[in-house]
Amino acid sequence: MAKSESPGGPSSGGSSLSGPHGGGVSGSGSRPPRIAVVGGGFMAEVHSRAARAARAQLVGIVSSTPEKSARAAEALGFDRSYGSLDELLADDTIDVVHICTPNTLHAEQAAAVLAAGKNVVCEKPLTTTVSDAEALVAAVGPLTATVPFVYRFHPMVREARARFRSGEAGEVLSINASYLQDWLLGVDDDNWRVDSAQGGRSRAFADIGSHLVDLVEFVSGDRVSRVAATKKTVFSERASHSGITTEDAVAVVIETRSGALGTLLVSQVAPGRKNRLYLEIAGSAESVGFDQEQPETLWVGKRKGSILLPRDADQLHADAARLCVVPAGHAQGYQDAFNAFVADTYAAVDGAEPEGLPRFADGLRAVRVTDAVLDSAEAGTWIEMGTEK
Q: Which of 5, 14, 153, 223 could form a Cys-Cys staple with 347, CB 3.0–4.6 A?
């Protein structure tokens, strides 16, 4: 098993654009990336913190109105606000645009960014239709275009993946995965995501189930080949929305290309579960279990001698160790994972090839799986995923 060279892990030879962060950068002295954000809500805050950690220059931001744009610029530390997306795209100083807007806006906005010749980070779901996602993938060309499947950047997720890639865990036999939240538990809980006009056809699965499927395929190295799903909308009316058709919960049976079987449970109405993404994959030699709410350890299950492996760079494979930005015993979490994703994105802009960076093709894959899950739930039949990469 590869060992790290220090508590922070070895460098991965990444970008000279952004500073020496968990994403692995060279710090050769070239200027930092100049970035802009579209959207002014919670995810804009998360993206801007990650950009700042990667030593980017926060040039400008645009939100839904000039007034909101000005407030967001001041609150998040951007140099200026823009009056419109067109004005932002006309700014030749911008290297990377982060899109943090409602789902149904992603396709048009990301296409405009790419057409302007700018690199792009687009929140998931990448789009709300497969055709739009395919069009974006075709439009990327030489630019860098990524989607924040950031749970890939927890060190213990990389350790789980390394165990399957190296053969230590053996062949994939079964998968047990769930992503549970409770923030939409009550009838008075509301959000733009429940509205299909803003969030798209799917809500719970597109929002958090996409993360779950991405991790299943990323860690196992296997692809979902077919799905059988059922879904439930608990509340057809909420505080400011009526006629709600997007789902609150989804249960899915999956089969992979290698023949492994699995179950996925996704819910945004699970009391007490705040952001509980759990992934357990059984291999023929060992199982691995990762709990996003307890991300400092990885359960490694064996017939004899199961262990709880700590996030200690000296005990991890190199790809996991390089994401350990503080020594063992100092907890890392979601923002650290997001920071590493953004740092690796900027490294890719600068010409590096970071391991495991989720790009628009991965976003397209998630949209395809989401469509298959919804089609299955509505038709009551298995849906085949095909053999696309």
A: 14
Q: Does the pTM of the predicted model rise above 0.70?
A: yes
Per-residue model confidence (pLDDT) at position 188 = 93
Annotate 308-344 with b (16+ C-beta within 10 A) or e (fewer): ebebbbbebbbbbbbbbbeebeeebebebbbbbbbbb
pLDDT, tens digit (0-9, with 9 covering 90-100), for 158-170 = 999 999 999 999 9
Could you give phi then psi for residue 15, rounded to 5 degrees? Answer: -75, 145
The per-residue pLDDT for range 136-183, each reduced to its tens digit, is 999 999 999 999 999 999 999 999 999 999 999 999 999 999 999 999
Q: Helices marked H in the chain — which ranges?
A: 42-53, 66-76, 85-89, 106-115, 130-139, 155-165, 196-199, 204, 210-220, 318-321, 334-349, 360-379
Query: What is the separation, in whole angstroms, between the first and last Cα of the chain?
Result: 29
How much is the mean pLDDT over the chain?
91
Judge whether 57 and 30 are in contact, CB under 8 Å: no
Task: Calculate the CA dihedral of residues 118, 124, 130, 134 and round it to 10 degrees.
Answer: 20
* 3-state SS class at 310: strand
**Hey, what domains does the chain have and what are their CATH numbers?**
34-123 (3.40.50.720), 151-325+359-384 (3.30.360.10)
For residues 100 and 262, give the distance between their C-alpha atoms in angstroms, rounded to a whole number. Answer: 32
pLDDT tens digits for range 363-388: 999 999 999 999 999 999 999 997 77
Structural contact between residues 124 and 98, judged by C-beta atoms closer than 8 angstroms: no
The CB-side HSE value for 311 (13 A sphere, CA atoms) comes to 27
d(CA 191, CA 199): 10
